[in-house]
Every structure is written in structure tokens, then in C-alpha cells.
Write a structure and sequence with these properties.
Blueprint (H helix, E strand, L loop, with lengths): L22 H12 L1 H13 L5 E5 L5 H9 L4 E6 L2 H13 L6 E5 L12 E7 L8 H11 E12 L14 H11 L9 H6 L3 E9 L6 H18 L6 H12 L17 E8 L2
Helix pairs in contact: 1-8, 2-3, 8-9
């Protein structure tokens, strides 16, 4: 799922070694508003590993991927791995509410130290977590060793930071903010294919998944405020004073005519996934 102040802060998921105030809410909102990719990606996972009995979600965050996998694979046991006990607690509570308690368990682990014992896994899911690790190549080799023959590693990344604002607002404010974050390495990840192949995987496939949904305007507004509020402190001294002022004005305006409540507010995003099989 390291701290998210130099990578994308939502995930969701989506994850890595998650921590930080407000991150759980942000991950939940990301899954609620842009979660359609979860349906498509887990459908693909079921095509790749239809008989998966043991599934591991590495860097599970608030558990959106864990729960989606548990629903997609009704006979499988799903192991949710994250550094944060608070995130894992949220996952277990959500699993209980959704009737999945008997099939979801959690493991607290710092993925930068080593992978937890996951030998015999049929499917490993790593959504927005691999790029968070200090040595992702080592992690891919460990996953390869842990998978059963024929097992699959599915890596998912955001193609870019989520977008909310119309382009005309403050003459392209959001694009400038994203450019400033990119210079700080936010959401930075490589094409994982070469690393997966070096780790020993074969038959690496790649797919793109639009991240859309049909959320309520209230959920879209909450997600926009949560995300933009989280990036503000990271932009101090990096973005221009004028852009920071405009961002703060947006966040301070909670009135009925606020741009963050406008019908023009539209959340956009997309994911890329790499599926790699152990021969």
C-alpha cells in the first residue's frame, strides 16, 4: 500500500503500507465513486484463476479489493495484508456486515520488511501497492515463490491522479496542481512487465480499466473535498501562491454554489492492470 505524501493517496484502494489521518475515508470514497474498475478487474481475475481457493490482497488498505474478491470468488479464502491495524479492523468489520467473516482474515505486515507467509496462494492481488515499496522487484520475486504453479499475480495502478474540476476553472488549476505533484513523484510507477518477467513470471497480459461509477452528487463532493484537502499540504512551497490560494478558497466554500457541489463536478480516472502467471 511508506507514506502517501509522495505517491497517490487513494488507492483503493486501494493501499500499500497505509496510514495517515483521513486516508481510510479517502480510500472508501475512491472505491464508492470510482469502483467500477473493481468489478471489471475481479471479473478478469476470475477468468485467469477460476478455481482460486486462496487469494491474498497485498497492501489491502480499507479492504475494498479484499471484499470485491471475496464476493467474486464465493468459495475462496481471502487474506487481507496491510501495515495498519486500523485498516485491517475496518476490513474485518466490513466483512462481518457483508456476511463474509468466515472467508476473510487479516495479517498485519510491513511489506517493506518481508512478505508474510502466503505460500500456496492461487491469486495475489496488489492494487496501488507495489509502487509504494522500497524494493518492488524483491517483492515480485517473493510473490512468485509463494504462488502455486499456475498461480497469478495481478498488479493494478492508477494511470493518473483522479480529476474532479472542469478545465476552465481558474484556467486549468487542477492540471497545474497535478503537474506539481508529479514533480514530487506522486503516483509514480513503471511499466511492471519487465520486472514481472525478471521475477520469473510468464504470459504477462495488460489491460486498461476505466474507473467510473454512478455515485450520488454528495459522494462526489465528499471525495473531491477529501482528495483536494489531502494534496493541499503536500503542495506548500511547490505550487504557486496563487494556485494554493485558489485551492484553499475552493475547499473553504461549502455553500450551495460551490464548484465542489456544481453539476460540472465530474470524477474521472482509470487503472492499468498487469496479470502475470507462474508457469
Amino acid at each position: 500500500m511508506t507514506d502517501h505524501n509522495h505517491h497517490h493517496p487513494a488507492g483503493g484502494h486501494e493501499h500499500g503500507n497505509h496510514h495517515g489521518d483521513g486516508l481510510a475515508e479517502l480510500l472508501d470514497l475512491d472505491a464508492q465513486v470510482l469502483g467500477s474498475y473493481l468489478d471489471a478487474a475481479t471479473t478478469w481475475a476470475a477468468e485467469l484463476a477460476p478455481a482460486a481457493a486462496t487469494i491474498v490482497d497485498l497492501g489491502a488498505g480499507s479492504g475494498a479489493g479484499t471484499l470485491a474478491l471475496a464476493h467474486r470468488f464465493p468459495e475462496a479464502a481471502v487474506v487481507s495484508v496491510d501495515k495498519s491495524p486500523d485498516m485491517l479492523g475496518r476490513t474485518l468489520e466490513a466483512a462481518r456486515r457483508q456476511g463474509l467473516s468466515g472467508r476473510v482474515r487479516t495479517v498485519e505486515a510491513d511489506l517493506d520488511a518481508s512478505l508474510p507467509p502466503i505460500a500456496g496462494a492461487d491469486l495475489v492481488w496488489a492494487s496501488s501497492s507495489l509502487h509504494e515499496l522500497a524494493d518492488p522487484d524483491h517483492a515480485m520475486r517473493e510473490v512468485f515463490a509463494a504462488l502455486r504453479p499456475g498461480g497469478v499475480l495481478l498488479v493494478i495502478e492508477m494511470d493518473g491522479l483522479p480529476r474532479f474540476l472542469p478545465d476552465h476553472l481558474h484556467a486549468g488549476l487542477e492540471s497545474r496542481l497535478h503537474a506539481a505533484l508529479a514533480r514530487q513523484g506522486w503516483n509514480s510507477h513503471p511499466d511492471w512487465r519487465p520486472g514481472l518477467e525478471l521475477a520469473g513470471f510468464a504470459a504477462v497480459e495488460q489491460r486498461a480499466f476505466p474507473a467510473t461509477g454512478s455515485p450520488t452528487p454528495e459522494a462526489e463532493s465528499r471525495y473531491a473535498r477529501a482528495f483536494l484537502g489531502r494534496i493541499g499540504p503536500a503542495l506548500a512551497g511547490i505550487a504557486s501562491a496563487e494556485d494554493l490560494y485558489a485551492l484553499n478558497r475552493l475547499l473553504d466554500d461549502d455553500g450551495p454554489d460551490s464548484p465542489l457541489r456544481s453539476p460540472e463536478l465530474e470524477v474521472r480516472g482509470s487503472r492499468t492492470a498487469w496479470a502475470a502467471r507462474k508457469a
